[in-house]
Design brief:
This protein has helices at about 5-20, 30-35, 40-50, 55-65, 70-85, 90, 100-110, 130-145, 150-160, 175-180, 185-200, 245-260, 265-280; strands at about 85-90, 115-120, 170-175, 205-210, 225, 230-235, 240-245. The protein is of the alpha/beta class. The protein has a seven-stranded mixed β-sheet with strand order 1-7-6-5-2-3-4. Helix 4 (about 55-65) packs antiparallel against helix 5 (about 70-85). The chain is elongated, with a radius of gyration of 23 Å.
């Protein structure tokens, strides 16, 4: 979890503590407040010490229980700012994958230069429908989220029309492991690798592959997407991180450039993809 996020959550906790001890009817102990709210005392401790993220309902109840209902709006604003950076999958997938795809499509529409690093999957902008279908199906199972697979697949495939729009630039770096990961049936992965071969000649696309035997100057950590110089999105198991501060973007730019030093392009990238495709035929 990002340091900036943790600091924001700790600051929110400090504000909650301030409200508890400065109520119009005198300070409340943590135990007294917990009793008023019908919560376990441990929840009061975790919220005040930045160990747990409050919900909007939690903040409303806290403001009222401390006799300061007018503070609820300020608390919700703090929470909204905090959540804009860390977007949990539980919250994002409450209505399925399609709304998540729509949010990403909006960012793509604003972007002229997209840079993508993926270490274990084919980038969404290059996925075939069958590969994307397997991805969404497995992710929905893992996250126990509503199934809207076909709508999500259509949204992802439709977004790929941007690959053919003049004036846009799509740069992809992919670890060789992503070419070989059987997260879909072998025949689907074979078609996906054929798709990768076909995009290498597009004017708007630059595809680099980092082979297993490449000398690395940076370890192949989490995948990330860079939207111009204004936004980086990083995926983790619990959430997406939407990062827009200049220092963080500069860090990811250095990581991107460093990873790129180990990549192969053009016919050398095609050769790595071809070898992965041949390995499928031997399964």
């Amino acid at each position: 979890m990002s340091t900036d996020f943790q600091k924001a959550r700790a600051d929110l906790g400090a504000r909650l503590r301030e409200l508890r001890v400065s109520g119009p009817n005198g300070p409340l102990t943590g135990t007294q407040l917990a009793q008023r709210l019908g919560w376990a005392h441990s929840k009061i401790y975790k919220l005040e010490n930045g160990r747990q993220t409050a919900t909007a309902a939690d903040l409303q109840a806290w403001a009222e229980a401390t006799g300061q209902p007018g503070a609820a709006g300020e608390l919700r604003a703090r929470l909204k700012s905090l959540e804009s950076q860390v977007r949990s999958w539980r919250r994002q997938l409450a209505s399925g994958h399609k709304p998540v795809q729509d949010n990403i499509t909006a960012e793509h529409a604003r972007t002229k230069r997209l840079r993508v690093w993926e270490n274990c999957v084919i980038p969404g902008m290059l996925q075939t429908a069958e590969y994307a279908r397997a991805m969404f199906t497995r992710h929905a199972e893992l996250m126990r989220s509503p199934r809207d697979t076909e709508a999500a697949v259509r949204a992802r495939v439709q977004r790929q029309e941007g690959l053919y729009e003049p004036g846009r630039s799509y740069e992809f770096l992919v670890w060789e492991g992503a070419l070989r990961a059987l997260i879909c049936p072998p025949q689907a992965l074979a078609a996906q690798l054929d798709r990768l071969q076909s995009v290498i000649g597009l004017d708007t696309v630059k595809l680099g592959i980092i082979p297993f035997d490449a000398r690395l100057k940076a370890h192949p950590g989490n995948g990330f997407w860079m939207y111009d110089e204004r936004l980086v999105i990083v995926e983790d198991w619990h959430a997406e991180l939407w990062l827009d501060d200049a220092d963080t973007i500069a860090t990811y730019t250095r990581v991107w450039n460093t990873l790129g030093e180990s990549a192969v392009f053009g016919h050398r990238a095609q050769r790595v993809i071809h070898e992965a495709r041949q390995a499928l035929d031997r399964l």
